[in-house]
């Protein structure tokens, strides 16, 4: 079975500062990894995904993430955040033999002016 | 644009009064999901359809039912809503070719009075 851990429930940061949201996973088989963003009263929007290939993945809105197999991590980074990045961020994992996504508990990113 | 549509966006019902939420998709994906999401929590999978095959999660209450009359549409029926069923309900779709990525609708916010 797979599991996802997002250790930080909230991350406060000032505008234009860099940010890293942490995600660790557990799985006995190869995984696909995802980061989704959710703005208030909206659905989840895909930021980026890792399926295979290059371990550095670039997504929308200037976000990127690096797949680290040895550390079983998929941390999300942005070099300079904006007020508009304030939202809930979910890390998720799936595998080749399942239709389901396993979500982490989410990290609330709060960007202050 | 291909998308996942949920109607209505906001639904108010009375305690014990049956309610139906709808989801449609123009992506032609063969898998459709229903999630329940409560405040500050990750989405919780209720059930999903792989084509016409219905897959219920073990902990989904019997009060929740679903119908998928064709590829494009899927319905969530709550037979006797309780106060604890107030939540955001998210519909999502995926196809085998997408490597596990799910595409989410904007959600329906259900209020139970």
Structure summary, number of beta strands of chain A: 12
Name the average pLDDT of chain A. Answer: 94
Biggest interface, CB < 8 A: A-B, 25 and 25 residues
**Structural class of the helix and strand makeup of chain B?**
mainly beta
As an assembly, this protein is: heterodimer
The H-and-E topology of chain A, N to C, reads as: EEEEEEEEEEEE
Q: List SSEs of chain B in N-to-C order.
A: EEEEEEEEEEE
Structural class of chain A: mainly beta
Overall morphology of chain B? globular
Helix content of chain A: under 10%
Major sheet description of chain A = 6 strands, mixed
Model description:
- The complex is a heterodimer of chains A (113) and B (113).
- Chain A is built from no helices and twelve strands.
- Chain A has 113 residues and is mainly β.
- In chain A, β7 and β8 form a beta hairpin.
- Chain B is an all-beta fold.
- Helices cover 0% and strands 51% of the residues of chain B.
- The mean pLDDT of chain B is 94.
- At the A-B interface, β5, β6 and β10 of A face β5, β9 and β10 of B.
Secondary structure elements and their pairing?
The complex is a heterodimer of chains A (113) and B (113).
Chain A (H helix, E strand, L loop, with lengths): L2 E3 L4 E5 L4 E3 L2 E3 L4 E8 L5 E7 L5 E3 L5 E5 L4 E6 L8 E9 L6 E2 L3 E6 L1
Parallel strand pairs in A: 2-12
Antiparallel strand pairs in A: 1-4, 3-9, 5-6, 5-10, 7-8, 8-9, 10-11, 10-12
Chain B lengths: L3 E4 L2 E4 L5 E7 L5 E7 L6 E7 L2 E4 L7 E4 L5 E6 L8 E8 L8 E2 L3 E5 L1
Parallel strand pairs in B: 2-11
Antiparallel strand pairs in B: 1-3, 3-8, 4-5, 4-9, 5-6, 7-8, 9-10, 9-11
List keywords for this structure.
heterodimer, A: about 110 residues, mainly beta, 4-stranded antiparallel β-sheet, globular, B: about 110 residues, 11 strands, about 0% helix
Structure summarized in a few sentences:
The complex is a heterodimer of chains A (113) and B (113). Chain A contains no helices and 12 strands.
